[in-house]
Design a protein that fits this description.
The complex is a heterodimer of chains A (335) and B (298). By secondary structure, chain A is an all-alpha fold. Chain A is 75% helix and 1% strand. Chain A contains 13 helices and 2 strands. The model of chain A has no long low-confidence stretch (mean pLDDT 82). Chain B has 11 helices and no strands. The C terminus of chain B is likely disordered. The chains are: A mainly alpha (335), B mainly alpha (298). Chains A and B meet through helix 1, helix 6, helix 7, helix 11 and helix 12 of A and helix 5, helix 6, helix 9, helix 10 and helix 11 of B.
């Protein structure tokens, strides 16, 4: 990607973000069913009360005006009131977000730790059994439904072997005061290594469920990038200079092979956002994904709308970062 | 003058591709598995040993035939929490998976091809609108988009198809637009233009036949993905509604009984994996046979 391409993407970014907001707003505005009726469902409200609520929410305004208001509010983090919690949507989401981010980060860590050695090994030993096994596993990885993989892990490691808990984030009695919302940090800050370990064991299965399919994909990318790098002159030269195999592989070759991997990883992080909804539902993980799924069934539309917008904006920004990173890391692109 | 031996007519590109495909043993085997699922789906009412909706609490969570604790002969794969025959539900579930996937992929291929042709050939504002729309839709993680739409429209078979098509056409459109942009500069298109053919004629009669094989390859690849999507939505309870059996919702049904009845969740997952894996293998073979250039796209 050239510098001009980065500029082009920079110009496109606001257009895509605007388009995304239009679609998210449209999903909501075109929904059959009246939000006021849902809000007042369990109360005996008069016609006038309903009309006044509708006026307060701005629902009697023309749709274009409502969109502008929605956009302005969204930009300031105001997504309205969660019907269910009777608190600002922003607050409810902010409360759940750390759990989701923690899970995503650990899943990414799992993916990198598995994919890098596997990808490098497969590239070094091209066409070996390991290389062939990797392509088979990758195909498996993309064919595996995430929710079922999670259930299999629960069956094997939680139900039968009892190594990990079945679900949840932390057991009763191990809770620590909320500091950052990231349990791995909070437990350590509270000086509770026992609680840290328990939080970690709760994290293990969901993080593996999310991380391993990503690892399969990532390992393939690293393998082909590494194979390409290993065939270049500078690697041959480094070897001819008499540098050790390990030094050549990990210092000289891997650095460049990781460029496409970083890009793929940034994009995959966005896909993990969708995967989170599934995995959090399977493991009863109290994050944003599960909150969204629950809100759908509670017809808590403002929250669903805000979360979908948040997911999409994050995804767009991550893709944009992937492009920037690619341009920044790749010396062929650097200006 | 000697009568020369009749030369066999040169094979068409399609025939060549099919010949290459037939030589790929993995792809052929995978295609047969897919075919098996299709046959099961089509003839489900005649093949399924029981009514998939027939509940009987006396058969609740009865074990598969090979398990020692199997108590209900004739219910080979056991029963779910309502005592419904799992084998019959799996066979009927294939109908949901395959019909949603086929519908979504076909409709999306038609829309995507037309949009891609128009954007790539007409350029100008058509291209701008289509490309921005494509960029915007790509701005949503797939599952988030589908879940958002299903949340608003409510569950059901029609809505799943609609929600998935609204995103799925983008993938075909991108490929077709790229191919059309390239075709636009080629001599045969230029010739057609010089002959005074209308843009519609050029797009549908000249360019379309040349982009069909990438469309076919993309469609088969996407089919695998759509099956997982439908299963995921149904797993979350946003897909087809009971009593219609879907593999995704069957996995969800068994979640509460993992300790006592592992088969309820496990068996439908095996079906999803087997079908999706076979489609992926078959489409890899198709890609290699039909369009070796497409190695990078999925």
């Amino acid at each position: 990607m050239s510098f001009s391409r980065v500029l082009e993407r920079l110009v496109q970014l606001p257009i895509v973000l605007l388009g995304v907001s239009v679609i998210v707003f449209g999903m909501m505005a075109l929904t059959p069913g009246d939000p006021v009726e849902i809000m007042l469902a369990d109360q005996r409200a008069t016609e006038e009360q309903a009309a006044s609520l509708r006026r307060d929410l701005g629902l009697d305004r023309p749709i274009a005006e409502r969109f502008v208001v929605f956009l302005g509010n969204a930009a300031t983090g105001d997504f309205g009131i969660s019907f269910f919690h009777r608190r600002p949507v922003f607050e409810v989401i902010a409360e759940r977000l750390p759990a989701t981010i923690e899970l995503t980060l650990v899943a990414l860590l799992v993916a990198v730790l598995v994919a890098v050695p596997l990808g490098v090994a497969a590239a070094v030993k091209r066409d070996s059994w390991l290389d062939r096994a990797l392509s088979a596993i990758s195909l498996f990885g993309v064919s595996l439904p995430g929710f079922w993989f999670g259930i299999l892990l629960i069956l094997l490691f939680a139900v039968h072997l009892g190594w990990f808990p079945v679900g949840g984030r932390i057991p009763f009695g191990a809770e620590v005061p909320r500091l950052t919302g990231f349990l791995l940090i909070d437990t350590l800050a509270a000086g509770r290594p026992d609680a840290f370990l328990r939080a970690l064991s709760h994290l293990a299965l969901p993080a593996i469920t999310l991380g391993l399919p990503t690892a399969a994909l990532l390992a393939r990318v690293i393998r082909s990038a590494m194979a390409e790098v290993l065939a270049t002159d500078y690697v041959l030269f480094a070897e001819a200079k008499g540098l050790s195999r390990r030094r050549v592989l990990f210092l000289h070759a891997l650095k460049n092979a990781l460029i496409p991997a970083v890009t793929v990883l940034a994009i995959e992080t966005g896909s993990l956002l969708g995967g989170n909804m599934i995995v959090e539902t399977v493991f009863g993980w109290p994050g944003l994904g599960r909150l969204v799924v629950e809100s759908i069934f509670a017809r808590n539309y403002p929250l669903v709308q805000a979360a979908v917008l948040l997911y999409a904006v994050t995804y767009v920004l991550l893709n944009f970062c992937a492009d920037l990173l690619y341009a920044a890391l790749n010396p062929k692109v650097r200006l | 003058m000697s009568a020369s031996v009749a030369e066999p007519p040169p094979l068409s590109p399609t025939a060549l591709a099919l010949r290459r495909l037939a030589g790929n043993r993995t792809a052929v085997a995978a295609s047969l598995v897919v075919l098996l699922f299709v046959l099961l789906a089509v003839f489900a009412p005649w093949i399924a040993p029981h009514d998939p909706a027939d509940a009987d609490l006396f058969r609740r969570l009865c074990a598969p035939a090979w398990a020692a604790e199997n108590t209900e002969p004739g219910y080979w794969l056991g029963c779910d929490a309502l005592g419904r025959d799992i084998l019959s539900r799996l066979i009927h579930g294939a109908r949901v998976s395959l019909s949603v996937a086929a519908l979504v992929v076909c409709i999306a291929a038609v829309i995507g091809t037309l949009a891609g042709l128009a954007a790539g050939y007409l350029r100008g504002w058509t291209d701008t609108i289509v490309s921005r729309l494509v960029d915007t839709l790509l701005g949503f993680p797939y599952l988030v988009f589908a879940i958002g739409l299903m949340a608003m429209m409510g569950p059901g078979l029609h809505n799943i198809v609609l929600a998935l098509v609204l995103k799925e056409w983008v993938f075909t459109c991108r490929v077709v637009r790229g191919e059309t942009l390239a075709a636009r500069e080629q001599d045969y298109v230029e010739a057609a233009r010089a002959l005074g053919c209308t843009p519609r004629h050029i797009m549908l009669r000249e360019i379309l036949p040349n982009v069909l094989s990438p469309v076919l390859v993309v469609a088969t690849f996407r089919m695998a993905y759509v099956i997982i999507m439908e299963a995921s939505l149904s797993f979350l309870g946003l897909g087809v509604q009971p009593p219609m059996p879907s593999w995704g919702s069957m996995v969800a049904d068994g979640r509460d009984f993992l300790v006592d009845a592992w088969w309820v969740s496990t068996l439908p997952g095996i079906c999803i994996l087997a079908l999706v894996l076979s489609i992926n293998l078959a489409s890899q073979g198709m890609r290699d046979a039909f369009d070796p250039r497409l190695h990078q796209s999925s």
